[in-house]
Fold:
Amino acid sequence: MQTNKYLLMAAYVVSLAGCTATMTDRAAKVQVYDQMSSLVDGCTQIGPVSAKAEHAMLPSTIIYQAKNDARDKAAAMGANALVITNTDMSTHLGYREATVQGIALRCNWKSPT
Structure:
């Protein structure tokens, strides 16, 4: 019985190892807005972006990871700005899933380096 306890604890620790929310270099160059504003007036809409992240992470961590993934997808489309239009969170059997939707934009200002 003691062995099972240690195995369960080891599995939990290993599962936490994948809980870091990372951002790619290209995603870091995409400016994120939580709503349409005058700051993105004059920008060209490239298209919709949707990203999901799932794990047994804290809700704030999994939303952060989904936003990072959305930024990366927007960057891959040639965007330098992303307006988040929707964020959803669901839980199933202890695992959380966050979905972030937005609009990728190409703006004429320089993106951060």
About this structure: The first strand starts at residue 31 and ends at 33. The chain has one domain: 2-106. Residues 54 and 97 are 4 Å apart (CA to CA).
